[in-house]
Design a protein that fits this description.
alpha/beta, Rossmann fold, 2 domains, 7-stranded mixed beta sheet, 4-stranded mixed beta sheet, 11 strands, 40% helix
Length: 275
C-alpha cells in the first residue's frame, strides 16, 4: 500500500471518527437542551394558557418523568375539545380504532346517520372482534379497514403487545410480530372514493407523524379538524405541532390532558382547526 492510499485511509478514518463523536455527544445532550428551539417554537403556537400549561407539564414528563398534574386532567372529554367540534354529516378518519369502542360509538353518534367514521387497525384478528361489536351495536355509519396508517404504501412487521390492540412500529423485547399492510391516507381516499375528510383522529402508537405525512394532500386541500396523540414519543409533542404549522394551513392549536390508559403513562392530545 503506497503512502497516498494510506493517507486517504487515515483521512477517511478521522472523518468517520469525528462524525461518530458529533452524533454521540449530540444524542447525549439533555432533552431540554437538545430540543430547546423546537420546544419553544411549538409552545408559541398554542392558543390558550391551559394548553401551554399542559405543554410545560408534558415537557417535564418527557425530560425527567415528572408527573403531570391531576387537576389538569379531563377538562373536557377525549377527542371533544370545545374549539374543535365534530358535526353532523362529517366524514371522520379514526386512525387506531380501539377494541374499546366507546369513543368510536360516540363519534358515530356525533356525525349522525349522514356522516361516516372510517376506522383503521392493522391487526386482522383484533379487527374481526371489533367488527362483531360494531355489528351488534346497530351503528351503520362505521366502516373499518385492516390497515395501519403510514407515509407510504408498504408492508411491515409490527409488534403487538399480548392481546391488546396496540401495535408499535419500534421494537420491544417481548411480544408478537405480525405482518401488516400500511397505507398512505392520501392514496387510500382516492382508491376508496372518499370525497371529503372533515376530521382526523390518530392514536397509532408512535406512528402519528408518519400518518400525518401520508395525509399531507388532505391536510393542505381540505384542512380537516384534528385530534392527534402526541405522547407516544418524546419528540412528538413539538415535531407534530411544528410540522402542521409548516404546511401553512392556518391551523390553531389546543392541547388536552386525558386519563392515561396505563400506570406511569400520560395521554395528551393535540387539537387543531382552521375554523
Amino acid at each position: 500500500m503506497n503512502d497516498k492510499v494510506v493517507k486517504k485511509v487515515w483521512i477517511f478514518f478521522l472523518i468517520c471518527l469525528i462524525a461518530f463523536f458529533a452524533i454521540f455527544f449530540n444524542d447525549s445532550k439533555p432533552y431540554l437542551e437538545r430540543y430547546a428551539k423546537e420546544i419553544t417554537a411549538a409552545k408559541s403556537l398554542l392558543t390558550d394558557d391551559y394548553s401551554k400549561e399542559v405543554f410545560d407539564e408534558l415537557t417535564a414528563f418527557n425530560a425527567s418523568r415528572t408527573p403531570m398534574k391531576q387537576e389538569n386532567m379531563d377538562k373536557f372529554p377525549e377527542n371533544y375539545c370545545p374549539n374543535v367540534p365534530m358535526n353532523k354529516g362529517d366524514v371522520m378518519i379514526n386512525g387506531g380504532i380501539s377494541s374499546d369502542l366507546s369513543l368510536t360509538f360516540k363519534m358515530a353518534e356525533s356525525v349522525g346517520e349522514n356522516g361516516l367514521v372510517i376506522g383503521f387497525d392493522p391487526n386482522v384478528r383484533i379487527l374481526a372482534n371489533i367488527n362483531k361489536k360494531i355489528e351488534k351495536s346497530g351503528f351503520k355509519n362505521i366502516k373499518t379497514y385492516s390497515y395501519g396508517l403510514w407515509n407510504k404504501n408498504c408492508h411491515k412487521d409490527l409488534f403487538f403487545q399480548g392481546d391488546t390492540d396496540a401495535s408499535l412500529v419500534f421494537r420491544k423485547n417481548e411480544g408478537l410480530y405480525l405482518p401488516a399492510t400500511l397505507v398512505k391516507l392520501d392514496d387510500f381516499v382516492v382508491k376508496e372514493g372518499v370525497k371529503k375528510v372533515d376530521f382526523i383522529t390518530l392514536d397509532v402508537e408512535g406512528a402519528e407523524m408518519e400518518a400525518l405525512k401520508g395525509a399531507e394532500t388532505i391536510l393542505v386541500s381540505q384542512k380537516p379538524n384534528l385530534a392527534i396523540s402526541i405522547h407516544h414519543k418524546p419528540t412528538d409533542m413539538f415535531q407534530i405541532i411544528n410540522y402542521l404549522n409548516s404546511l401553512n394551513c392556518g391551523y390553531k392549536f389546543w392541547l388536552g390532558y386525558h386519563s392515561p390508559y396505563s400506570v406511569n403513562s400520560v395521554n395528551v392530545l393535540l387539537y387543531a382547526t382552521v375554523k
